[in-house]
Amino acid sequence: MKKNYIKMLAAILVCGTMTTGFTACGGDDDDNTPQNPETQKTTAKSASAWFSVNMGDDVLEVFDVAVTTICPSLGESTKSLTKATFSSADRDVPTKDAGLVFAMSVKVTPKAGFVPDASKTYKLGLGSDFAYYILNEKNEPLVGSQGVGSVSFNALNIPGDKLAERIERLAETWSYDLQKLEVYKTYYVFNGKRDDYEL
Length: 199
What we know:
With 199 residues, the chain is α+β, with helices and mostly antiparallel strands. The protein has helices at 2-31, 59-62, 160-163, 167-174, and strands at 44-55, 63-71, 75-80, 85-94, 100-110, 121-124, 126-136, 141-144, 156-159, 176-183, 187-190, 193-196. The chain is built from four helices and twelve strands, in the order αβαββββββββααβββ. It is elongated, with a radius of gyration of 32 Å. The N and C termini lie far apart (67 Å).
């Protein structure tokens, strides 16, 4: 009886050792399994950006409006606007390992020496847009923002005798600091917020 017990114990130990060995082999197989292609990151091929401003008929009589744009093909440029509309674009720029930078800012300041005509109603209002999209290797959109079309704005009709008290506030409302898009091959950053491309 004692011999049978010892034999059974030996058999159990042998089986346990074999099972442990098989488990170790299974772990090696898992390490060699190729990654699922669906989990790999999508790569950007190119990017485009549009910059635009639209304003009321009398804005440039009351204010100086300057637009600064930064883009890979055209570099940095600041333009003092002389017309009620402005548009510029940098299209289909190939991505680079170092990244691409597109940016826009608008500065509105009261025109020096301007005195409102109390008998006139001024047609004011200003809208601006910085739109973009990023394409993958198949020229499919990975990321896109709204507003590539014409820019709308809230029209304001302000009597001349009420305009002086509102000029500074309007200039501050319509100005905005640099909006910045950075485009990299596997991710992008807009105004400091990083996002990976959607699969």
